Structures are given as structure tokens and as C-alpha cells.
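Closing statement on the PMT sub-project.
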Amino acid sequence: MNGRKILLVVGGGIAAYKVPELVRAWTKAGAEVRCVLTEAASSFVSPLVLQSLTQAPVRQSLFDPGEEGQIGHIEVADWAELVVVAPATADLLARMAQGMANDLATTVLLATRAPVLVVPAMNVNMWDHAATQANLETLRERGVLVEGPDSGELACGWEGQGRMSDPEAIAARTSLLLGTRSMHGNRMVVTAGGTREPIDAVRSVTNRSSGKMGYAIAAEAARRGAEVVLISGPTGLATPAGVRRVDVETALEMRTSVLAEFDAARIIVMSAAVADFRPANASDRKIKKEDLADGEGLQLEMVRNPDILAEISARRDQRVVVGFAAESHDVLPAARRKLARKGCDLLVANDISRSDAGFETDENAVILLTPDGDTEELPLLPKTEVASRILDRVEKLCGARE
Ligand code: PMT
């Protein structure tokens, strides 16, 4: 969080009493914090307290020449790397959803290009109201992130959902959102998903890769500040924030795209399940079953696809190249042989015979292998966490090569 810039927009709700604790958590972690208060917010939390904690002027009015003269509202909106709205009252969420700019808080929220995290807090009936839920849905569709609310005893005396998340949970979420910037300045190419090799105009040979592992790596690298190019086979996944995606279908197209990005890349992670073979003579028309009698065989000649990983590993220079291995048995010895054959810097081996890991699952259990014989077996973890562990290794390899 060191030096990261957080703009806190404080809404007028009783939960604002938790805000100084949140600000303290951020400043302790080294973040720079600026506060904007709605008119109602200053009834619940003292601007002087926030000013003392942030050591920066607290802004409340759009039209105060003194405040605007110190830092303009657009300047505040541009300054932020992350905007957090806490507590986000029903009124503030409604005004955000409408795109209103009728006070400093909503004007800044409309002007900023930084990611926005809202932390709702209100009475349970206000939270459950269709209007509030519709406003939230609108905001979510626009990419606004939501933290909480928690359930429990509410300040108004009711029980239910509507409590603002604890400052500790908000601080943890913001630290995750801000990332580490530790990969800033590095361009990284990630391949993901399975390739699809056409047989004819409607049929193809493919595999079970969902792309989840590769997309998690791309998202984590972007979060760490890398410039990420994701070369993706067909998947149903959304492009992670801040990532440039190049869509491909076949292994040959994937090779062309990887080679096009190769020169500018510092790191290449080949997590795609590239088809080893493709039909030798794909027909551009549909092969008619009427041409064959029942039980008659259809001969399909397959030819080998180029090995992209081996090719780029051989000419990598200072680049760090990571390969994957999908193994169904004798995982470790097979992965060791694959690492030697492919010549990459790090190999991530999956046991695809497991039903809870490998293809399509949200979790993975991998072994990390390096050419010096080092092996590290990771337990079953969410693919997001596996991505993080792989990138920790990549960062070390990059550091050792500087
Ligand atoms: O996408 P998910 O559903 O999340 O599943 C993740 C995964 C299981 C697909 C992933 O974790 C994984 O293991 N990816 C590699 C799958 C694979 O093709 O393994 P392989 O052992 O056949 O290939 C070894 C390496 O060579 C891989 O890095 C592969 O990208 C690369 N390769 C393979 C063939 C080829 N012609 N060119 C290549 O570059």
C-alpha cells in the first residue's frame, strides 16, 4: 500500500463512526488518503479527526472557493488510484446510479476514472428495497465493486443485512484491489484456454481447458502492474481488467500471435492447452454423413502442430518462460522429462486425473519444477492463489536475471 492513493468518499450514515479506524488502517500501511464528505457525513464523523489522520485537507463543498482553490474537484478525482465510498448510503447509491453531480461527492464520483468500491451501510429494509437493489445492479454493470454489507444488529435496532463491513475487511479488500505494482514495467504474454482444430466447416478437435488458470494468471499479473497480453483460445470468460486480449482458435494461430508479441515480452506464460495434432486436411464444407453407410469408418489423418513452448524457450535470451504440463499419471517424472524437453525456466505440472483440480475446476493442485531440480508441491488452492504463487516465482526469476 506504500504511496498508493486512496480517495475516501464518506456518506451520511451512522456507520461513518467506523471511518477513522479505516483511514488509520490505510495510513498505517503507507497509503496516502484524501477524504471527501457529503454534507450529512459531517454530522456523523468529525472532519477535523479525518484531517488529522490523513494530514490533508478534508473537502466537503463544491462551491467553497477556499477548498476549490487548494485542490480542485477534478484534481481530486484524477489523483485517486482507487475511490472507496464508505458508508455508501441508499441515497448516495441512488445518486451514483442516476449519474447525478449535485454535490462534491457525486461530482468526484462521476469525474474519476479510478476503480470505485462501494461499502453499503443502511437499514435492512432500505437495503432489501427493490430500488436500492436495482441501483446496485446498475452500478455493478458499470464496473463498480461492492464490499458487504454484513448481517447482524443494526444501529437502528433492526436485525439483518445492512451493517457496514469491518474496517479490517475493507482495508484487506482495498489492498487486494490496489495490488503490489511489483511487476510494473514488465510486458507479459499469457496463453490460455484450449485451441480448436477444425475437421470441417462445423466440427473440430479440442480439449477441456476452460481458460480459468490462464485468465487468473493474466488478472494477477495486471493487478501487480504488468502490461499483459492474453492470447486466448475460445472460452466463455470475461477479459480481466487492464488486460489486452487476442482471440485465436487454432494452434497455428496461437503460434503466430505468440511470435508477434515475443520481441516486446519480458515474461511468457504458456498455460494454454495447445492441441498437439490437427486434422491434416480440414474441409471448408460440412462432411455429409449420408456419404457413409452405418458403421462405416471415417479416416481422419492428423499431423503434429508446432511446439510453441519449445520454440520460444530456445530463443528466449533474458526472457522468463513458464510452461505447464498436464499429466494423467507418474506426474513428477513425466513433468521432469517435459521440463528438460521444452527448456523453459519454470514448469507448472497438473495432475489432470484429479476431479478437483486441473481442467475446468476453480481450484488447482500443482507442482512447480525448475531446471536445477528444485520442486515445490502446492496444496489444492483457488486458481487465483495458484496464479499468485506462480507469479511470485516469476518475479524471483526476473530479479535473478537483471
Ligand atoms: O483452462 P483450465 O480449465 O483452467 O485448465 C488449466 C489447464 C489444466 C489447461 C492448465 O493448468 C494446463 O495444464 N495447461 C497446459 C495443458 C497442456 O497442453 O499441457 P501439455 O503437457 O500438453 O503441454 C505442455 C506445455 O507445452 C504447455 O505449456 C503447452 O501450452 C505447451 N504446448 C503444448 C503443445 C504445443 N503444440 N505447443 C505448446 O506450446
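The radius of gyration is 26 Å. With this model delivered, the sub-project is considered complete and its resources will be redirected to Aim 3.
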